[in-house]
Each structure stands twice: as structure tokens, then as C-alpha cells.
Amino acid sequence: QVQLVESGGGLVQPGGSLRLSCAGSGSIYSFYVMGWYRRAPGKQRELVATITSQGTTNYADSVKGRFTISRDNARNTVFLQMNSLKPEDTALYYCKTISTGGNDYWGQGTQVTVSS
Fold first, then answer.
1. Strand (E) positions, the chain?
2. Mean pLDDT over residues 10-18, rounded?
């Protein structure tokens, strides 16, 4: 059984920073690719960033240069450092992991609100 628990969301002013964490439990083969997705009000869920177990990263164009994804393989944990936050970053942020077998697992989500 794979479980993902996100933390670190909250309310922040425009230009501020937040750091999201997602701790996974389960087989090490369940955490081949880890990433963050988000769903803004009235929009579909979209990719934010992913990172492989080897450290290869991928970012959405809208967050490049502002967000940084990283991971701790020993703890099956992925992080998202978000800087220079904008109101349009407001969304429910989800953690996702893809196993070596191609199975997806999702967390429950953590709310990020950027507002003055």
C-alpha cells in the first residue's frame, strides 16, 4: 500500500515563498518518478514539476525559475520550493508518484493561496 502525505500549504502574500513536502510510504519501487500537480478553481489539474529517482527534473513553463523540485530518496520524500508566488499560483497542490511498474498514486492535496 502506497501512501502520500503532503504538508506545507497555506496563505502567503504575492512575492512570498512556501515549501511543500510530500512523504511517501511503501515499496521503494513505488517512487520512481515523483511530482507535483495543481488544480486551480474552475480549471483542470495540471503538471507543476516532476523529478526522477536519478534527479532529472521537468517543470511547467509557468513556474520555471520560481519553483524548485527536489527529493530525498532515503525518505521517499519530495519537496517543492515555491518562490515569487503569484495569485495565479493559488490552487490545491497534489503530490503524485509513479512506480517502476507504471502505477500512479496520489496524495490528498494541500491548499496554497496567494493573496494580499
1. 3-7, 10-12, 18-25, 33-39, 46-52, 57-59, 67-72, 77-82, 91-98, 104-106, 110-114
2. 98
